[in-house]
Write a structure and sequence with these properties.
The structure holds two protein chains of two kinds. By secondary structure, chain A is an all-alpha fold. Chain A contains seven helices and two strands, in the order αααααααββ. In chain A, strands 1-2 form a two-stranded antiparallel ribbon. In chain A, strand 1 and strand 2 form a beta hairpin. In chain A, 36% of the residues are buried. Chain B is mostly helical. The radius of gyration of chain B is 18 Å and the shape is globular. The mean pLDDT of chain B is 92. The chains are: A mainly alpha, B mainly alpha. The interface between A and B is medium-sized, with 31 and 27 residues.
Chain lengths: 248, 228
């Protein structure tokens, strides 16, 4: 059993180091968000959600980039490790996409006066969320896990090709319609304090993402190893055959 | 490779096989057409009678084509799954890209038949003037269904090999098909209210670009979907 745990020892060590680092930077980011960044003049205190919203969106799209690259690699090389990274990135991706979709309307209700607007970036994020849902559904819907991994990789690749097209289309769609009362999240002012806070927050979220990615990856590798050794053990167990039926 | 038929010939053989099966059973086309006409009936009664349907026709038509098309796609690999004929097809000296292209052509042919019925039916039910815009509509709808069927064939092959079957198809397909729907429905609506073709040429160009991308991507990744 120890041999199994040892296989991921290095990964988990790096994950631990990154977690400590991420926790430190996250605390710093939160201090900046609440005590350093100025309160936005027109939107008020709700604007501070921007420092969580934008980094989550960045991580959500970064995660899909990793899913796509690892999917291409997996179909090409058939390396289980690449699939494990893709799975870990997709799980984190859907979590961060959900954070974006929850924090966006909270801010939008105050700034735009509506929970939801068909604004290009909102639409794109919603569709990204659906693509992630499809990725997991297809992965878990096959009898043969290898086939599920292959299909999920195809969804990852086609999704990555399609996301720029979706982005372009919803932008075009928007331009065909009159603009609603929009306060752009960038705001009219880009004060130094705001930019600094955002950058630290971006770093904190990115570090958190990679720490969680490594943990999830190590866990997936462990699960695969345990499954493999259970399967081996089941083969080695003696079976008694009687009347054509066997019991193990 | 000497002795093996060309890519196009392989694709046409697969398409001919599918269409021959369909000609004999007619089950997919009949269910698609019936479903599409029923959707039109539902729209007629779901809409407030005081609303002029002309302003909504683009949306209604594309919802109908999308759903009826997915109904047909859901069955496009049923023979391969239920009779396990995919093993035989894969054993044949056949390029995987040609297999994709053949299935795509057969699905496209069915959808063309569907569209040729859906438009006159909507014209009849909702008093649309189709003749004046026929050329532009043929261009827009033709390009849009090519993209629809290219992505649709790929995901139909995936969905058919899962436990969820055709239920999975809309979940995978609709988000990725949104660009096609946006441009197709917008351009169709404009043509139906009598705008000139020049006004939708940018949509036509976008649809052509999507078609090219979806066909190339589909043909490239299809090998990973059907391998055993």
């Amino acid at each position: 059993m120890n041999a199994i745990v040892n296989t991921t020892e290095n990964t988990r060590r790096w994950a631990a180091i990154l977690s400590v680092l991420a926790a430190g930077v996250m605390l710093w980011a939160f201090w900046l968000i609440f005590f350093y960044a100025p309160t936005e003049r027109t939107m008020g205190v709700v604007q501070r959600i921007f420092y969580v919203h934008v980094p989550s969106a960045w991580v959500a799209f970064l995660a899909f980039g990793i899913v796509a690259l690892c999917s291409v690699g997996y179909l090409w090389l058939r390396d289980e490790r690449l699939d494990a990274i893709a799975l870990a990135a997709a799980e984190l991706g859907i979590i961060f996409t959900s954070i974006v979709l929850v924090t966006g309307p909270l801010w939008g209700k105050i700034a735009w006066g509506a929970w939801w607007v068909w604004e290009p970036r909102l639409t794109l994020t919603l569709l990204l969320w659906f693509i992630y849902v499809g990725y997991f559904m297809v992965r878990n819907a096959t009898e043969n896990p290898e086939r599920g991994k292959r299909f999920a990789a195809v969804v990852g690749i086609v999704g990555a090709v399609d996301i720029p097209l979706i982005h372009m289309s919803v932008q075009w769609f928007r331009s065909q319609h009159p603009q609603p009362v929009i306060m752009r999240p960038e705001g009219p002012s880009a004060d130094r304090e705001i930019v600094e806070t955002l950058l630290v927050s971006l770093l904190a979220f990115t570090l958190t993402f990679f720490a969680l990615l490594l943990y999830r990856y190590a866990l997936e590798r462990l699960r695969a190893r345990v499954e493999e050794s259970t399967y081996r053990a089941s083969l080695e167990q003696p079976r008694t055959i009687s009347n054509g039926a066997y019991t193990s | 490779m000497a002795g093996t038929p060309s890519f196009l010939r392989q694709a046409l053989t697969i398409a001919a096989k599918d269409l021959r099966l369909e000609m004999r059973s007619r089950e997919r086309l009949v269910s698609m057409l019936t479903f599409a006409v029923l959707v039109a009936v539902v729209f007629s009664f779901a809409l407030d009678p005081t609303i002029r349907a002309r302003g909504l026709a683009g949306a209604m038509l594309w919802v109908t084509i999308l759903f009826a098309g997915m109904l047909g796609l859901g069955r496009s690999f049923s023979q391969e799954r239920e009779q396990d004929t995919m093993t035989g097809i894969l054993l044949a000296p056949l390029d995987r890209g040609a297999l994709f292209f053949g299935k795509f052509l057969a699905n496209l042919a069915l959808l063309v038949a569907l569209v040729l019925v859906v438009f006159p039916v909507y014209g009849l039910f909702f008093q649309l003037e189709l003749w004046d815009a026929a050329g532009g509509l043929a261009l827009v709808v033709g390009l849009a269904i090519v993209g629809f069927m290219a992505l649709g064939t790929l995901f139909a092959a995936i969905a058919a090999n899962t436990r969820l079957g055709e239920t999975l198809l809309p979940i995978l397909l609709i988000p990725l098909l949104l660009p096609v729907i946006i441009f197709a429905a917008g351009a169709t609506q404009r043509l139906l209210i009598g705008r000139p073709l020049e006004e939708v040429m940018s949509s036509v160009r976008m649809l052509a670009a999507f078609d090219l991308i979806f066909i190339i991507v589909g043909a490239l990744v299809f090998a990973s979907v059907v391998e055993e």
